[in-house]
């Protein structure tokens, strides 16, 4: 089975035989797959009236477990945005009644961000929709192949996840 990357690689091999274009065979496919995944994510989230960034914040809180709350600093760490961006996001989610701010009992100057019941429901529904989209993307692979691919991708991405800063 030939795909667009095979055609791209063949063209580069013809036009630039002096270059080793083998990395394109893997990374161009990863890049194309990422675009398809991005479209699938946006579709799953839009069906639940969520933007991707809203899903990221809501699911960070949902994964925290009951009572589904984190400090803004913890949310920053999980979503990799600036404090100003996070403040804006929390404000916007609070206006939609998807999160609420509460005083932090361990720090009288601090606040906690808690998922509302509506926020929890929307996060759960959007996650189910996302997983259905992702299952469709992976449908051509067996369970063993999915595990093998996950292990290989982990090996490639782990060094990036462990870089300080």
From TrEMBL:
Question: Which residues belong to any copy of the HTH marR-type domain?
Answer: 23-158
Source organism's superkingdom? Bacteria
Signal peptide positions on this chain:
none
- Keyword annotations for this protein? DNA-binding, Transcription, Transcription regulation
Q: Which Gene3D superfamilies match?
A: Winged helix-like DNA-binding domain superfamily/Winged helix DNA-binding domain (1.10.10.10)
Q: Which InterPro entries match?
A: HTH_MarR-typ (IPR000835), MarR/SlyA-like (IPR039422), Tscrpt_reg_MarR-type_CS (IPR023187), WH-like_DNA-bd_sf (IPR036388), WH_DNA-bd_sf (IPR036390)
Statement: the UniProt record of this protein carries the keyword DNA-binding: yes
**PANTHER family linked:** TRANSCRIPTIONAL REGULATOR, MARR FAMILY (PTHR33164), TRANSCRIPTIONAL REGULATORY PROTEIN (PTHR33164:SF104)
Q: What is this protein called?
A: MarR family transcriptional regulator TamR
**What organism, scientifically named, is this protein from?**
Streptomyces niveus (Streptomyces spheroides)
